[in-house]
Amino acid sequence: DAGITQSPRHKVTETGTPVTLRCHQTENHRYMYWYRQDPGHGLRLIHYSYGVKDTDKGEVSDGYSVSRSKTEDFLLTLESATSSQTSVYFCAISAEAETQYFGPGTRLLVL
Amino acid sequence: RKEVEQDPGPFNVPEGATVAFNCTYSNSASQSFFWYRQDCRKEPKLLMSVYSSGNEDGRFTAQLNRASQYISLLIRDSKLSDSATYLCVVNRRSYIPTFGRGTSLIVHP
């Protein structure tokens, strides 16, 4: 299995609070992605990175920001969490922007 | 039209059956194709790539039809452990793969 971890694995937070999710890889892959997965919507891309300090928006980026200061870490921040951001968040990595390897996911509940 | 479409199912089949899923894509510039498997409450995992000439991996066969813009996954001799959601993925030589919403397979005794 690819070396990719996510933290925390579960989080409960309140509306209006900031939340940061971390994705860490040991594969030295160039590309990293954040997705959310909700019933009826499948996997939706939030943000992605194609190198250190190089990031771009996906299809559902509103309310989220990301940072990648090192190859191995990709952070997803919810500046002010809302109940609509309750979801399962997956990080993925890819060496060549083709096959992706996913982390175990973070279950976020915003009350 | 969605960029990648799959029949959500569920496909409910007995053990030993053969089952096939299709996935259609709208962008003719799509270059590479994959099938992923996702178990309940787990992350998606790569099942197999799909090559132009078709390819097999044990009981699984993947095919690509560029003219009709679809890929297929055939599972022979279904096992209980094959129960999962199968996601198709299409790449357009960008950084961003596009995922279908998945097809649910339930294999029963």
Keyphrases for this structure?
heterodimer; A: 111 residues; mainly beta; seven-stranded mixed beta sheet; four-stranded antiparallel beta sheet; globular; B: 109 residues
Report the radius of gyration of chain B as a whole number of Å: 13 Å
The ordered string of helix (H) and strand (E) elements of chain A is EEEEEEEEEEE
Sheet-strand content of chain B, in percent, reads: over 45%
Q: What integer is the average pLDDT of chain A?
A: 94
Helical/strand content category of chain B: mainly beta
Please report the number of helical segments of chain A.
0
Query: What oligomeric state do these chains adopt?
Result: heterodimer
Could you give a short account of the major beta sheet of chain A? 7 strands, mixed
What gross morphology of chain B would you assign?
globular
Main sheet summary of chain B? 6 strands, mixed
- Separate helix tally of chain B: 0
| Low-confidence segments of chain B | none
Instruction: Summarize model confidence as the mean pLDDT of chain B.
Output: 92
- Largest inter-chain interface? A-B, 20 and 19 residues
- Tell me the number of strands of chain A: 11
Number of DSSP-assigned strands of chain B: 11
Instruction: Give the end-to-end Cα distance of chain B, rounded to a whole number of Å.
Output: 37 Å
Class by alpha and beta content of chain A: mainly beta
Instruction: Give the fraction of residues assigned to helices of chain B.
Output: under 10%
Q: What percent of residues of chain A are in strands?
A: over 45%
The helix fraction of chain A, in percent, is under 10%
SSE layout and pairing:
The complex is a heterodimer of chains A (111) and B (109).
Chain A: E1 4-7, E2 10-13, E3 19-25, E4 31-38, E5 42-51, E6 54-57, E7 64-70, E8 73-78, E9 87-94, E10 101-102, E11 106-110
Parallel strand pairs in A: 2-11
Antiparallel strand pairs in A: 1-3, 3-8, 4-5, 4-9, 5-6, 7-8, 9-10, 9-11
Chain B: E1 4-6, E2 11-14, E3 19-25, E4 32-38, E5 45-50, E6 55-57, E7 60-65, E8 70-75, E9 84-91, E10 98-99, E11 103-108
Parallel strand pairs in B: 2-11
Antiparallel strand pairs in B: 1-3, 3-8, 4-5, 4-9, 6-7, 7-8, 9-10, 9-11
